[in-house]
Amino acid sequence: MKCLAIADLFITKDMMVQGLKKLVEAGIDVTVREWIHENLEQLQKDNLTIENGGSEVVELPDTLFEDIETFDIVITQFAPINTKLILAASNLKLIGVLRGGTENVNEALAKDRNIEVINTPGRNARSVAEFTVGLILSEIRNIARSHASLKQGKWRKDFPNGAFVPELEERTIGLIGFGNIGQLVGRFLNGFDARIIYYDPYYKGQNDFEQVDLNTLLAQSDVVSMHGRLTEETKDMIRYEHFQQMKDTAIIVNTARSGLIKEDDLIQALQNNEIAGAAIDTFDHEPLGDNSPFLQLDNVTITSHMAGSTNDAFRNTPKKLAERLLEWDKKKS
């Protein structure tokens, strides 16, 4: 059995080789090729384009198609597995995706051709969850604003939330989406003695936190944190009217997908002080332009789409996928 693994600037060729060792030990012939970009910014741009437009909107270079018809398995992180590749890979039986979602795979065509698609849910859950907690603290305690002021030679003590800077103890944290990441954020913030509530109509598991409807969550929360997947159903699920339901001392945090929040409405809500602030890691257009309204706001903490980008997450993901692929191969044989 032959496997083609497509590396990139986040999961490098060396990481892929090391992470897929168990496949080689199991007798699978693994070839690693690189989807080459000049820099991380260009890779992120392609990734965002694919997430918004699907697997067909970005073309792969011809170098990745060499002997493609001989491979039984294709492994990818961000590279699109589109119509051209699937039709060319005439022997393809399995597509392995090194991420929680499969937005970069033409799943409909894969299903038509009886090609199974396996992903790695929760692969960067801890990195995103830890980052989320950091953003919450940075925004409510003005850490980033104070840092930026000191770098400019200003000893700043006056902040937009200066009249009500909170601690997290006994504050209500509302999690929208309660998958792997949301559950970890809940666990972490529970250690701060915060009250954790969540909204997720698809979650059926057992936990120690309170499940509520969306309106209740927005009205009661001091911090609203987004952890859902972006689908047609969840696109723009938080709009201006939802910010009006929130406390004027509350903040909203998004380390998931920008499309979950209607960005123009968020900017308007921040400008009008409908809420106290926001902490945002993902945007409709990346990188942010010089004229982005986010750059003019004093009640927002912004970061450059980096919540899931830890070396540990990228290095360990091929190992996790290799284990899943071996389970698939065992069941098939």
The chain-level structural class is alpha/beta
Separation, N- and C-terminal Cα atoms? 12 Å
Series of secondary-structure elements, N-terminal to C-terminal: EHHEHEHEHEHHEHEEHEHEHEEH
Biggest sheet overview:
7 strands, parallel
Can you give the mean pLDDT?
95
Strand content: 15-25%
Total beta strand runs: 12
Summed up:
Helix content is 35%, strand content 15%. The protein is α/β, with parallel strands linked by helices and 333 residues long. The strands form 2 sheets. The protein has a 7-stranded parallel β-sheet with strand order 8-7-6-9-10-11-12, with helices on both faces.
Task: Give a quick set of tags describing it.
elongated; 12 helices; alpha/beta; 333 residues; single chain; 7-stranded parallel beta sheet
Question: What would you note in describing this structure?
Answer:
With 333 residues, the chain is an alpha/beta fold. The protein is 35% helix and 15% strand. Helix 1 packs across helix 12. The two termini are 12 Å apart. 39% of the residues are buried.
